[in-house]
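Here is a tokenized protein:
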Amino acid sequence: MKILFLTHYYPPEGNAPATRVGALARRWVKAGHEVTVVTGAPNVPDGVVYSGFKNRVLPQEEVIDGVRVIRVWTMIAANKGTARRIANYLSYMVSSTLRCLFLSRPDVLIATSPQFFCGWAGVLTKWWFRLSRPFGGKPKFVLEIRDLWPESIGAVDAIGNPHLLRILEWMELRMYKAANHIVTVGRGYKRRLKERGVPENKLSIVMNGVDRDLLEATIHDRGELRRQWGVEGKFVCSYIGTIGMACGLDILIRAGEKLRDRHRDDILFLVIGDGAVREKLQAETEKNELNNVRFLGRQAKESIPGMLALSDACLVHLRKTPLFETVMPSKIFEAAGMSKPILNGVNGDARELIEKANAGLIFEPEDEDGLIEAVCRLAEDTALARSLGENGRKYVIEHFDRDKLAKDYERILKELVG
């Protein structure tokens, strides 16, 4: 097949969307397909273009692992604030759609959300191919839903204008209607899409997963890493990922204060990543003189396995709202794949997976006392922590190997194309 993939994020960016699309594209090329990716200059999360890349008006092309990668101009913005980020999203929609006007017709067009306007770039590109090549066959349009916009931005009050939200909701439903098929990353999303009127036969699930080869090839000197970061003698619970409004990481400030008052100096929360509220949370940590909550900022993607290796447990947490019960955070698979027990503060499908795999301990979202109880239990019972980590690795390797997931996705595309 000839596959055209529209994605706002792509390697060397290391966030979940970029990692997912990169993993799929590489595997599809190895399977014999021709894959073209249209993306922007890598800049996440700081809004600074990575060394070796440029944000140019004229598109730039390169071949990475057999994938043709076309980078278009966008209005660069850091992962914070609303207005500039929306401008960034809109500029990608316009630039990517314009670039697609000059591409040959694919068999399959895929657009992945987040962000929302990337999905609309797919809608506009589909219309263009159908109008400009009425006798050349019609590409199948697959919309990939990894986040429920605009519902998710409404849940964290990122946009308070109800009129704007209604416009976005209309665009959301129109986008679903335009797609020939919708692939989403979890059962919760599928249920919500059905509630939004999407028919069952138009929906498939291809979840996130783990790269077995990467994990098995990663050998780290845990002791050296712990000395390097100054965490010897500590039980390290790491949060690794985007530090956004939805994450509710102020729970770490409250938990840190209570642990300090209890003189539990053996427990350390490491926060690795960046995002819209990182500076605010870090300032609050420094104001309260918390030595048990440490922010390391964004780390290079290749260093993340090392950060996982030095950790004793990993935190997964989102704010307590019904919408987030549909979310399946990708960091679950990465942590479990590295045999790390998970402290899970996400209800719904994520909680069900952790319980089914017996891969960690559960606490209620935004409940710092529950988090404290769970992290102290693991710190005091290393055999339990090791057992939960081993359970998690075995489960995700068996059920969420990216090789298998890429083949499942490929099968969906083949059936759609016929």
